[in-house]
Amino acid sequence: MKELIAIVMAAVLVNNYVLAQFLGICPFLGVSKKLDQAAGMSVAVIFVMLLATAVTYPIQYFVLNPNGLGYLQTIVFILVIAALVQLVEIILKKYIPALHASLGVYLPLITTNCAVLGVCISNVDNYLTATGGFGGGFVQAMFNSLGSGLGFLLAMVLFSGVRSRVDKCKCPECFKGMPITLISAAIVSVSFMGFAGIVENLLG
Amino acid sequence: MTKAKSNVMTDFGAPIIVLVLICVIMSGLLAFTNGITAPIIAEAERKANEEARLEVLPSADAFEKVEAGSLPDAVREVYKASNGAGYTFSLTTTGYGGKNTLKMTVGIDGEGKLTGVKVLSHKETPGLGSKITADEGFYGQFPGLDAAGAAAADTISGATFSSNYYKAALADAFTAFELVKG
Amino acid sequence: MKNNKLNILTNGIIKENPILVLILGTCPFLAVTTQASNAIGMGAAVTFVLLCSNVMISLLRKVISDKVRIPCYIVVIASFVTLVQMIVKAYFKSLDDALGLYLPLIVVNCIILGRAEMFANKNGALDSALDAIGMGVGYTLAMLAMASIREIFGAGTWFGIALPVLSENNISIMTMAPGGFAIFGILIAIINKASNGKAIKKKDFSCEGCPSAAACNGQNCAEKREAAAK
Where in chain B are the domains? Predict the structure, then answer.
């Protein structure tokens, strides 16, 4: 149990997908301007990450590796993610129209979000050989995805707050827009560096 | 969206056939390339591991693989020198760059002293954590030390995390040594 | 005609530089540019995939129907990325270690799907090839510039060669995450200043480079752009 909490904490704070690992930067810079958009996108991302891991991890374990088809990983994963996203969108549209109206807009953009493919590949790299066989590794992988998604949410929400403040300030002409956003991201990233070592020291 | 039944073939059949054909052709291309590159990759890895083993345990002549049960997670392979010079341990462990990013080969002689440590790859911060391979004052401390000595060694100032991950890997190697030395 | 071809080629290098003007492919740009050698390697890989996929999609553009367009593109691009992965693992092992996760992530690099959507499916094979080379070279040059700055000041080396004063007095944060963001921002600011604001047309999220543009018919972004404008 402690191990699982450590995985989530590490993914959210120490190895934050956006601020430390540079995954999911496009939506981070593009969609973080307003809080509700940022939150909506992040929730959609968490959902897709969990679903994608739940499907791709078993595929790698039971289908690709035993048959020596490891090289098909990239193609299979990205097609699975694209298909899942389409499926989720269709289901949402049909059964939960209200949710589709608020989240559905972001779903097509998640297909090309490096964070989702990144979390699937890194789960397979890190947890496939873990103790506990398929079950143990799978649970750790799901918690890692949860943590990564939560980290994405945290970064997006924090940053949208930062951006709304920055937008109200005066800044040199050539810095307006993307440059000042990036510099703000740099400072937020520095603040997250302060979390280094927190997992080892807190949970032993 | 209404679809005239008579257009089912052109609306759905043709595109799907095109998609499937593309999938089949690309997969064939990949399988072909895999057939060529996979042996090269496997051979290169085997050679690199063999060279690393000789580098950390130079007095060994040949190596035999050792199977052992409950080794620490980080220790992936253990080899024993045929002439009794000692053991080598291949580790893949956590570094500052993330899980499974620090790959090392460690040699320990029959008396439990380090004969050599080689970092095969890492993702430490360039210019800072990367000093574990660049700073001789750090990595030079270890050959000749036993488990207690290695644990007490100095870390690099400003790169404490990377140094500690390095030392943790060595500790795992020592644990494995205790298990296999028999 | 020749002038037109040259235009296509140089478009990707300066006027529509994929990363500094179109702001696409930002993830590997920030992650891989800690060392100049990695930047060249990644740039070469991206150029190769871009070239192969642009040409193939352009050749197949009359055959691929609109309905299955995106999955087809994804299969083609992913296959070439896998090809590059295999070649790099076999012949350039140290590059494979350095790039790590970002090599397979080329498949979601918006530049490639974006150019397929925007250019390759509307133009002939030769034009698509030129466009791909231009974009690839532009991307590589931008990455090289970024990586050189980060490596020289952050680690005191360039292409692994230690530099006299800088290697003892390096500013380590440059090679870490915050440095990446900051240098990127400064680079764009410099370009803004140098072109008096004319270069960067897209300061915010825009449809043109977005791979999902065709899927949403500009609806998603239009809403967001309205919302952002308020």
Answer: 5-54, 57-180
